[in-house]
């Protein structure tokens, strides 16, 4: 009991302490700007490179040095930390629902945050693909194969993992098209698919460990960028990527935290930090880290890297994250229903 | 109380007590009371629905059940280790001694990943267990294994000093009065260590009930089956349902409180018996 309690409060106090440390470090002093980017887990490599590029860009433009601190963690946990006082200048999270929560629960961000930048404030995108073992021994080609009896599917728990919600919605959207919107059949399909999950890890990274290190499962449902990382880092002889016939356009959004940047006097730098992502340089960095770029020129340059995919958005298939969340992931939603609650 | 009449090292009883109360309030009581504040934002019906949901009940059964099982395992094993450490000297004793504390020091997530690597179907130990028809990860057994791991030092460290203090002469006396080894153990040693065994059990149990980091990797996290209560709390938080999370926490707190009170009462009775002897 004590421990779980400490988890809640620990997070809170860690957030507060970190916030204090960062704010006392000051954000703007002579010729130096400090920004804190609160992000989700798999973006470490991406922001390592992006922050360096942006610092050079900012120096050239203004003559100021910019120091960017990074914080990484589960998307929902990071959002809660910001709500509880982690002093973020910008957030770069896995789903819009989490930034909506910051706007709604704390008022730190203006509610129209998503329309302030192009492309729903998501400068780069990804999609949900299948990571299978070399040679694709179970011949997994599409979502239907994941719902077949005897296939072991690794995917994290959508109740605890923001990334896993994209997985769930991708499968749901596919089934919705396949069964022409017959919800009962869709639910049966999703139930069969999740019946094939031997484990529901609490986050995407844990699921990757289960599939890659524990060698459990025939297929892992994963973000494309993470699947590429697994293939590249662990060798091409172990895994293959299968792109299903229809999947979801994952749009990890970015936003600046209005109240914090105004208090720190870092609005200009934070704005530029997010906008720079939409430039050719920013887009190419995203592409190098296996995120699909928005900009045509960058997309063309890295076209060989991504397999063509038919994608739908959360907005067109589910009417936005708020509705998707309420219907599927809130207590008593479809995910709970397929597990009999 | 008579100790207070002596000149004590720390200044003044009142000052010391005041500081104790203030400190405990800041660190323990006020944070805990926030749980009740959060929970009180629910109506009673809402609260009742949260805590009696089948999923909550299943998670609580699992958490308390596995914690209980793990602590039960830890009591005899912990006793044995404490016995070895307290009674014998052998080369490498310091290392064994340090190893016992390892679960304290290791980040729980590291422990969880290591245990899963070891006990899952292709792990060093797991492969044999699975072949023998004992699935040792992603089920009750796996969860219990993780909780045994994190609870062990509590039992060892609670029992060890007591064993060290029992005079070997008392055993000799028992022997000279004709007691066999088993009788000496049962009538002389065991009663003396019961209170500390119970303390160790309590500590291990309390830690295990709320353990998150090391369990989450080996638990499997299937709703209604291998979903521990702390995970359910995290699930609620992930939905920004602070009140629901606090409600489950309050129930766990109260159940833990009752269980700990019970073992404390047992312990008190046991110590009293020794005192009378």
SSE string of chain A: HEEHEHEHEHEHHHEHEEEHHHEHEHHH
Strand portion of chain A, in percent? 15-25%
What is the second-level CATH architecture of the domain at 65-226 in chain B?
A: Orthogonal Bundle
Shape of chain A: globular
- Classify the beta-strand content of chain B into a percent band: under 5%
Q: Which parts of chain B are unreliable, with pLDDT below 50 for 5 consecutive residues or more?
A: none
Query: What multimeric state do the chains show?
Result: heterodimer
- Major sheet of chain A, described briefly? 7 strands, mixed
> What is the average per-residue confidence, as pLDDT of chain A, rounded to a whole number?
90
Number of helical regions of chain A:
16
Shape of chain B: globular
Q: What is the CATH H-level superfamily of the domain at 65-226 in chain B?
A: MetI-like
Summarize the topology.
The complex is a heterodimer of chains A (341) and B (277).
Chain A (H helix, E strand, L loop, with lengths): L1 H23 L3 E2 L2 E9 L3 H19 L2 E9 L1 H9 L6 E3 L3 H11 L17 E10 L9 H4 L6 E2 L7 H17 L4 H13 L8 H9 L6 E5 H11 L4 E4 L4 E4 L3 E3 L1 H7 L2 H9 L4 H9 L3 E2 L2 H6 L9 E2 L1 H5 L2 H9 L4 H5 L3
Parallel strand pairs in A: 2-3, 2-4, 6-7, 9-12
Antiparallel strand pairs in A: 1-2, 4-10, 5-7, 5-8, 5-9, 5-11
Chain B lengths: L12 H27 L4 H9 L1 H34 L5 H13 L2 H12 L6 H6 L8 H26 L2 H9 L4 H30 L5 H4 L9 H10 L3 H35 L1
């Amino acid at each position: 009991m004590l421990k779980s309690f400490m988890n809640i409060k620990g997070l809170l106090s860690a957030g507060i302490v970190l916030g204090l440390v960062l704010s006392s470090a000051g954000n703007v002093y002579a010729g130096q700007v400090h920004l804190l980017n609160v992000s989700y887990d798999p973006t470490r490599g991406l922001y390592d490179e992006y922050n360096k590029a942006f610092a050079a860009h900012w120096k050239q433009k203004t003559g100021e040095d910019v120091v960017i601190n990074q914080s990484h963690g589960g998307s929902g946990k990071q959002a809660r930390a910001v709500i509880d006082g982690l002093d973020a200048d910008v957030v770069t999270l896995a789903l819009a629902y989490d930034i909506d929560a910051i706007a709604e629960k704390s008022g730190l961000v203006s509610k129209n945050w998503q329309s302030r930048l192009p492309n729903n404030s998501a400068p780069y995108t990804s999609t949900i693909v299948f990571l299978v073992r070399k040679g694709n021994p179970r011949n997994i080609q599409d979502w239907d194969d994941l719902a077949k009896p005897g296939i072991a599917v690794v995917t994290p728990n959508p109740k605890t993992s923001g990334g896993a919600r994209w997985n769930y919605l991708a499968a749901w959207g596919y089934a919705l098209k396949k069964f022409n919107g017959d919800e009962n059949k869709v639910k049966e399909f999703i139930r069969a698919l999740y019946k094939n999950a031997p484990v529901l890890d609490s986050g995407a990274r844990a699921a990757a460990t289960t599939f890659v290190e524990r060698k459990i499962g025939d297929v892992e449902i994963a973000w494309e960028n993470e699947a590429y990382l697994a293939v590249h880092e662990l060798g091409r002889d172990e895994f293959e990527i299968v792109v299903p016939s229809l999947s979801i356009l994952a749009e990890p959004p970015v936003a600046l935290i209005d109240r914090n940047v105004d208090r720190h006097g870092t609005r200009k730098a934070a704005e530029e930090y997010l906008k720079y992502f939409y430039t050719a340089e920013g887009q190419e960095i995203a592409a190098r880290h296996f995120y699909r770029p928005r900009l045509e020129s960058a997309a063309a340059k890295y076209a060989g890297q991504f397999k063509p995919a038919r994608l739908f958005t959360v907005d067109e298939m589910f009417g936005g994250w708020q509705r998707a969340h309420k219907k599927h992931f809130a207590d008593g939603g479809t995910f709970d229903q397929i597990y009999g609650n | 109380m008579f100790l207070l009449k002596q000149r004590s090292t720390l200044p003044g009883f009142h000052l010391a007590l005041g500081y104790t109360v203030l400190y405990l309030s800041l660190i323990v009581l006020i944070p805990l009371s926030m749980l009740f504040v959060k929970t009180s934002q629910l109506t009673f019906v809402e609260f009742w629905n949260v805590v009696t949901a089948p999923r909550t009940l299943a998670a609580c059964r699992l958490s308390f059940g596995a914690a209980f099982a793990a602590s039960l395992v830890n009591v005899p094993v912990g006793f044995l280790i404490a016995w070895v450490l307290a009674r014998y000297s052998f080369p490498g004793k310091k290392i064994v001694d340090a190893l016992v504390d390892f679960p304290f020091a290791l980040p729980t997530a590291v422990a969880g990943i290591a245990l899963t690597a070891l006990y899952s179907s292709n792990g060093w130990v797991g492969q044999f267990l699975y072949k023998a028809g004992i699935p040792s990860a992603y089920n009750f057994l796996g969860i219990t294994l993780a909780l045994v791991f994190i609870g062990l030092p509590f039992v060892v460290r609670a029992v060890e000093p007591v064993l060290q203090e029992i005079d070997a002469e008392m055993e000799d006396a028992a022997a000279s009065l004709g007691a066999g080894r088993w009788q000496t153990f049962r009538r002389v040693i065991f009663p003396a260590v019961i209170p500390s065994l119970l303390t160790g059990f309590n500590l291990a149990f309390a830690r295990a009930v709320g353990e998150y980091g090391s369990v989450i990797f080996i638990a499997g996290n299937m709703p209604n089956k291998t979903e521990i209560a702390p995970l359910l709390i995290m699930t609620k938080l992930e939905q920004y349902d602070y009140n629901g999370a606090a409600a489950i926490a309050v129930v766990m707190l109260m159940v833990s409180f009752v269980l700990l009170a019970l073992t404390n009462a047992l312990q008190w009775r046991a110590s009293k018996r020794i005192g009378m002897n």
